[in-house]
Amino acid sequence: MAYQTxxxxxxxxxxxxxxxxxxxxEATLDRAHTVYQSEWxxxxxxxxAKVVSRAAAKLRANAEHYAQxxxxxxxxxxxxxxxxxxxxxxxxxxYAKRAERYLQPQPxxxxxxxxxxxxxxxxxxxxxxxxxxxxxxxxxxxxQLMVGNVVIIKHASSVPQSAEAFAxxxxxxxxxxxxxANIFASFDQVGRLIDDPRVRGATVTGSERAGASVAERAGxxxxxxxxxxxxxxxxxxxxxxxxEPTLDNALWGRMNNTGQSCVASKRIIVVGRERAQVFLxxxxxxxxxxxxxxxxxxxxxLGPVSSENAMKxxxxxxxxxxxxxxxxxxGGGRVNRPGFYVExxxxxxxxxxxxxxxxxxxxxxxSFYAVESEEEAIxxxxxxxxxxxxxxxxxxxxxxxxxxxxxxxxMAFVNHPTWTAPELPFGGVKNSGYGRxxxxxxxxxxxxxxxxxxxxxxxxxxxxxxxx
Length: 468
Ligand code: NAP
Known about the structure:
CATH superfamily of the largest domain: Aldehyde Dehydrogenase, Chain A, domain 1
Largest sheet: 7 strands, mixed
Strand content: 15-25%
Bound molecules: NADP nicotinamide-adenine-dinucleotide phosphate
CATH architecture of the largest domain: 3-Layer(aba) Sandwich
CATH topology of the largest domain: Aldehyde Dehydrogenase, Chain A, domain 1
Number of strands: 20
Number of helices: 13
Radius of gyration: 24 Å
């Protein structure tokens, strides 16, 4: 695997980067560990916040440059790239502002003199994917740096320039060298980092395959891990959902980021056969109207997928689905132009035995189901190995909430596709992983919740009353 920028809109190799040597990797780890021990963990929260919010300001000040890099390396439509830059800066700011409150020691009222402190634990390794190259990094860097940990990131090999650009945010903002390092590492080097006692935790956002590999290694070393893995979110349309806004949401939910989002609405489930036809027609018209083109052009509405492999994999899944009886309603093939473009596709008539019934389709391909009842919709929504997000559309908010509660996932939304914001916890259950990022929960995954119990000599142990 080479660390390489290949423009997915053209297929051209733009730039190749050498992998890090073992000696450089050791120096990077040593620097990270040393700066953690000697400096970063001891800095006041206000001082850390200055660094993190200056990094956010630097990102905003250079927003266009950062956005263009995303579009160049993974083909994101330019308007969405600008949106991602802004969201990543918001996440950094959120953590810079929230840390003081979050890191307050918590007294234990039943045990006077006892408090729980929140302490950092050291170097955290992040393994991150290409689909939201800055957002994913901000989700790790914001909380980890603010609690006093330091981070080493192995980003996806297809976004090396975005990875370096994000690391640059921490240069010239008053941060000591080494609190944030980007490494162009091999899987073998990642494994050895996890083995190293100086690394205290590992977080992965990516596929089940990558997650299992890192989680297994971390487990063997008795290190904590957080796994943000794949998803196959259902978007359930109940009988009373208004047609037009629901169609617009379903299109956005499926096609944002050219369908390459872990929380995309990959399976549209409509209750009621007649209404299902209305929705299928509406979605077919909307998907069919998307215009493939240069992702830097604001008029383009269908960008390329991220790589040749991603394109081939998706076309292969469509073929498998067809062979097993699925019907292609619209799209289904490669777009006839250079670059890695897959037509906006809708598949229906997907039976349980079809391999794609349980697979994640990571691109512009929607699976469409019609069912008879709310119960059937919930059963279908949960008939997946994944449990990341999900959504329900209805005019009846109480009913929407009741249905949302029955979706077996880490996140469920009523009348919006699964969504992300700095203050909303993000993560899943089942094969979608464990642990949470974002919100205040994001602070708490790699910390030492340390009990400090102080009592006068000769007194009973804290928590035990003198009478007891
Ligand atoms: P991927 O192949 O797992 O890649 C993700 C990262 O893991 C990359 O940096 C990759 O490196 C690295 N990696 C892969 N195998 C590894 C191993 N054995 N040891 C160490 N590192 C390894 O994922 P992808 O297919 O590119 O990304 C899409 C997947 O990520 C989808 O399943 C999507 O749903 C999921 N995702 C989840 C979330 C979430 O928050 N839950 C968010 C976004 C994406 P290389 O690039 O060098 O191969």
